[in-house]
UniProtKB/TrEMBL annotation:
The keyword Iron applies. NCBIfam families: UDG_fam4. GO terms for biological process: DNA repair. InterPro entries: UDG_Type-4/5, Ura-DNA_glyco_family4, Uracil-DNA_glycosylase-like, Uracil-DNA_glycosylase-like_sf. This is Type-4 uracil-DNA glycosylase. Pfam families: UDG (PF03167). It comes from Methanolobus halotolerans. One of its GO terms (molecular function) is uracil DNA N-glycosylase activity.
Amino acid sequence: MIDGGFEHLEKEIRKCANCSLHEGATNPVIMKGSRDPNILFIGEAPGKTEDMTGIPFSGRAGKKLDEMIGYMGLSPDDYAVINVLKCRPPNNRKPRKSEIEQCKPFLMAQIRFLDPRVIILLGNTAEEAFFSRKEMQWGVPLVTDEGISVLKIFHPAAMIYQRSRIDEQKELLDKNRHLWE
Ligand code: URA
């Protein structure tokens, strides 16, 4: 368990050497958005642009996420964005289980500090990190023991590579508007 405030957590992330990913990272990527969000989006790991800017979803997938957030009708105060991993895996490979486990205390501490009403898991990696197993259906929300509504939808990068996913994603969002409206 990581104690202290948000600034302490950020410092801990910046000096983390728990796995080897920090060796190749230009910047750890911590969060963007509100510090008091209703909705928290959780992605997978920084890509090349995020590694350079230090800002989650600041590249191509970020454009898709912004479009999705526009479609949801959210304003900047409503949401925050974080990733399962804070450091970029080489060549954007999938995070390893061990990396997810090493980074998980940071993820859970961020969730605790941000204290959202709704968590939106962007794809399977976010789900596996959050629940330590797979248990969700796409677009079917559940409520945790802590009273947080959790929803799994497609990762924004899937909208780049599979354009047919855009309409499917809109359907998932439309079905769940009651969670944030
Ligand atoms: N993909 C992610 O999951 N996170 C980012 O920050 C960028 C791309």
